[in-house]
Amino acid sequence: MKFLEKIRNLPESKRKIILWAMVIALASIMLFFWISNIPKSLNNFQAGQFIKDLNLPKIELPQVPELPDLNNIETNAQEETQIQEN
After folding, report:
1. What's the CA gap between 71 and 86, in Å, rounded?
2. How far apart are CA 3 and CA 7, in angstroms?
3. I want to staple 10 with a disulfide (CB 3.0 to 4.6 A). Which of 3, 14, 51, 84 is the partner?
4. CB 41 within 8 A of CB 50
């Protein structure tokens, strides 16, 4: 507890420096462990299972009628004009 009393007796500016140094040190340690666990997490990640676990609502799309082939229409039109010309 003498350690805490020494810190309490320091000026406020030095106490803030000590506080931020401790925060940065702890954040660095946590960041190191977090980064070291990323490869393990990615190896265990299963995209298919993740999507199933989301339980997203199913959206029903209306049936879209088939559109005629435009290339076929143009060739048919050309053939018809050739037939009519003859």
Report:
1. 23
2. 6
3. 14
4. no
Output the furthest CA–CA distance in the chain (Å, rounded). Answer: 112
The model's pTM: 0.49
Q: Which amino acid belongs to residue 78? A: Q
Contact call for residues 18 and 7 (beta carbons, < 8 A):
yes
Q: What is the pLDDT of residues 1-55, one digit of tens each?
A: 788 899 999 999 999 999 999 999 999 999 999 999 988 888 877 777 777 777 8
Point out the least confidently predicted range of 5-9, 33-37, 57-61, 78-82: 78-82
Nearest to 73 by CA among 65, 62, 81: 81
Residue type, 22: M
